[in-house]
Amino acid sequence: MLTSLMELVLGFIVECLLSLLWWFLLFPVVWLVSLPFILIMARFRPQPYGLAVTGMLTTVHCAWRDWGLFLTP
After folding, report:
1. How far apart are CA 70 and CA 23, in angstroms?
2. What is the chain written as a DSSP string?
3. Which one, 32, 42, 46, 60, has least CB within 10 Å?
4. Angle at 55 between CA 51 and CA 42, to 5 degrees
């Protein structure tokens, strides 16, 4: 029983650490990698530039959330 409890607690800690790693390292990388493409593509949208950039960055954010990679609901 103690082994099972330790495994549960250690598994939870490892899962939290991996989630934090995912959140703090990978999320900004996705934004930084997609940003140049978004800035270029926004030039060719019929919308005003700022609105197009905001909309596309929101799309990246929503895709990240919809794939289940977001920590907050």
Report:
1. 7
2. -HHHHHHHHHHHHHHHHHHHHIIIIIHHHHHHHHHHHHHHHHTTSSS-HHHHHHHHHHHHHHHHHHTT--S--
3. 46
4. 65
Return the residue matching tokens 């939290």.
16
* Structure tokens, 16: 């939290």
C-beta separation of 13 from 35 below 8 A: no
Q: pLDDT for 2-52, tens place per residue? A: 788 888 888 889 888 887 777 777 777 877 888 899 899 999 989 899 898
The CA distance from 7 to 16, in Å, is 14
pTM for the predicted model, two decimal places: 0.54
Q: How far apart are the first and last CA of the chain?
A: 33
| Assigned token pair, 2 | 């103690």
